[in-house]
Amino acid sequence: MKLATVAPEVYKAWFAAEAAIRRGPLDPVIRELVKIRVSQQNGCVYCIDLHTTDARLEGETEKRIYQLNAWRESALYTEPERAALAYADAVTKLGEHGVSDEVWAEVEKHFDEGAAAGLVAVTAMVNLWNRIGVPMQMRPGD
After folding, report:
1. Whole-model pTM above 0.90?
2. Is residue 14 part of a domain?
3. Neighbours of 51 (CB within 10 A)
């Protein structure tokens, strides 16, 4: 199913939200790292392909993209990036108790309120896109 064709009003609203997130204060590299990482966890090949391309356009390196799946073990990510990725991991794999106070405290330590709100929004949005892309079996080039 082409959801954009079947439900254009809803799809346009999602794209408007995406555009608002892009205009926000969250660093564009962090935004794209979060989108890739969440998409890796959810197995959304369409979004992985899209956001690795977008990350490169924002100046991200191949090496950091390759190591993103093992970001905790990699020395290539900054403390703010680690806080964002830990938050994204926690939100994507919501456990019984949601996001821990410790994870959120790291977000607050490294991001002002506007950027933290952007992180919350981008993580929610990419999870939404993944939950469309995976069941609709979207592939790069679709």
Report:
1. yes
2. no
3. 26
